[in-house]
Amino acid sequence: MAKAIRMSKTGGPEVMEYVDVEVGEPGAGEVRIRHAAVGLNFIDCYFRAGLYPQPLPAGLGQEAAGTIEAVGAGVSGFKVGDRVAYAGRPNGAYAEERVMPADILVKLPDAISFDTAAAMMLQGMTVQYLLRQTYAVQPGDTILFHAAAGGIGLIACQWARALGVNLIGTVSSDEKAALALQHGAAHVINYKTENFVERVKELTGGRGVQVVYDSIGKDTFLGSLDCLRPRGMMVSFGNASGPVAPFGVSELASRGSLFLTRPSLGNYTSTRAELDATAGDLFDMVLGNKISIEINQRYALKDVAQAHADLEGRKTTGSTILIP
């Protein structure tokens, strides 16, 4: 038996239960992993609340790092004792041990700790596909990145700086503004005290930005469109404030023939080659000291309800991990 988080209904943080589960042995194409650290991400809250549906009862969590303890039939490239990390579905990372598909695993370089890996896989690979694939930013580009002091945001600030990109970040406090600037943001807007659309126009001489990366959703979506220059790209990749309301596609035409995309990590890492390339790029940035992963909160796995409450209450910065 092993400890894990399970939920039998959707709702607030209180629906998560810390229980004993039978782990079992891996089947074909599977491995059993003992987790050393588990990542906490906003997408976990979406599943917990029911915004993203899944069959119940269910586990939660899409990111962790640990050691392989058993390997099922047909698995190649991995063996017992390998240090590995992963990000992606199926849910179930909130656990001491789990059996899972081997095809979403990557081997973890010895120089990257389990804690760091658990804090960066989902967030770091998300930044990789956002900046290098969804819209391949170029030196000198000016971009807008919401929630710049969060886990994804702080990685994006550093990655953009390394690429010679001017990142304008939005935050909710002066303390978070200072944090984003320390990590490479060119400019920071406190949306509690400033109109971010007006400020972006000021910072760009009225032209707007080439691309907006928006994980906030409902509260910022139309304003984000207004920050784009003609033929700019709106990248909506989260719903922290709630899902975006339906809107007419003419909104894109009236603002200058804008592009809109709603990407997800799974669609950018659906093959082994894509996964290894995306993770490899992230590992290179970390090992090359171009990106530092800020783990600013640690919680015991049994205290995950408090971790969710703090995350949703905007009380966290950088990355957060759970310790089984």
Automatic annotation (TrEMBL):
GO cellular component, as recorded: cytosol
A Pfam family of this chain: ADH_zinc_N
Enzyme Commission number(s): 1.6.5.5
Database matches in InterPro entries: ADH-like_C, ADH-like_N, ER, GroES-like_sf, NAD(P)-bd_dom_sf, QOR-like, Quin_OxRdtase/zeta-crystal_CS
SMART domains: PKS_ER
NCBIfam families, alphabetized: PRK10754.1 (NF008024)
Protein name: NADPH:quinone oxidoreductase protein
Lineage of the species this protein comes from: Bacteria, Pseudomonadati, Pseudomonadota, Betaproteobacteria, Burkholderiales
